[in-house]
Amino acid sequence: MENVIPSSQSRRQSSIVVLHNFNCYSSSTVNSVTIISEKMASSIKIDNGFAIKLSSHQLFQKKIYYSNIMDEANQAKFTYSIVPITTKDKHTVAAFLRKFFFRDEPLNVAIQLLEETDSAAKLENYCISYLQYGMTFMAVSQTGDIMGVILNNIMHRDDEEEEEEEDDETCNDNLKFKDIVVLLDKIKREADVFAQYKNVNRILEIKIVTVNEAYRGQGVCKALIDKTKEYALEMGCQMIYVECTSHYSAKAVERLGFQCIYSLAYNDYVNEHGEMVFKTQSPHRGAKVFVLPL
Q1: DSSP code of residue 276
Q2: Which of 15, 58, 80, 98 has its CA 20 to 30 A from that of 130?
């Protein structure tokens, strides 16, 4: 196939449909998703100031999906692909996360984490560390914009003790980032997913999913999670797990069929003086853990 992006007619007639008529936030509809030829240009220029280079290896090794989205409000069409992220993309992805995740995440905002340079650097390193495992994906528009990113990890029942040791190393300082790590550790420990699901030994964990605000409400988050679900099944995972610190992310995964197995109200999480650690803005009232059995 010589044409990378098929005509609108061929998209409509394609028999390979992954998503169909899905209203994510009631403002847009996904019309179709089609598998595209692997003969795709290796370089993509991004109009919003970022630049990425997708290697031929990336494109040949993974399925690439294109989706045609019609925004009901302004009738604008968006075509995008879901492609794997590699360590070569780390600077671009880091810039994207700084712009669309770090500044919006409720816990970061509550403790003004980005005002502390060392904490911001630790947060960025924490996120980028997940790129090396080959299980993270991004949505890229036809024009080259990064529309969304999802960072994943795989948890095994036997890995719990090792993860606790790594968390201790991360928390060996007095930075604001430590406050977030300690809370997330508490959430994971108390949710205790492997104790709740004794027959589950391998879980894909969604660490971060974020979408460019210009494309929010148009099915991008669902497409990223669908690709993650496909990957989880390929890797023999029995479940998908996600910790939601945002009201909006919790609502999004609920709509996708995830089940809540744990919740913690932020006003119940206090320090040794009885003071709230995270005074989050409305509507972010607490953290929740969701799972999706596969």
Answers
A1: B
A2: 80
State residue 164's pLDDT score.
Answer: 52
| Predicted TM-score (pTM) of this structure | 0.74
Q: The tokens 């007619």 sit on which residue?
A: 9
Sorted by sequence, the CB contacts under 8 Å of residue 182 that are 6+ apart come out as 171
Sheet holding 146-156, edge to edge: 22-23, 28-35, 65-71, 77-84, 137-141, 146-156, 202-211, 239-244, 286-293, 259-265
Give the H or E element holding residue 187. helix 176-191
Which of 20-29, 105-114, 237-246 is predicted least confidently? Answer: 20-29
Tell me the per-residue pLDDT of 73-84, one tens digit each, with 9 for 90 and over.
444 557 899 999
**Alpha-carbon separation of residue 275 from 26, 68, 69, 270, 279 (angstroms):** 39, 48, 46, 5, 9
| Plot region of 151 (φ>0 → left; ψ -120 to 50 → alpha; else → beta) | beta
